[in-house]
Amino acid sequence: MKLYPEKCAFSVSLGQFLGQIMKKRGIEPNPSKVEALRNMPNPRTPRDVQVLTGRITALSRFI
Length: 63
What we know:
2 helices, elongated, 3 strands
């Protein structure tokens, strides 16, 4: 196994990993993704519904 020092962070209190915020008390949703979902217009086409479903799925563990 190789570790790259520029990519490693140890003993940090807050960090972003795979689009989620990692804190000492657990995993929380990324606020920018939550805002994108809140500011999204009402779906009007089948494609819009697919986009909405994908975003909700990404945040479903927090709902």
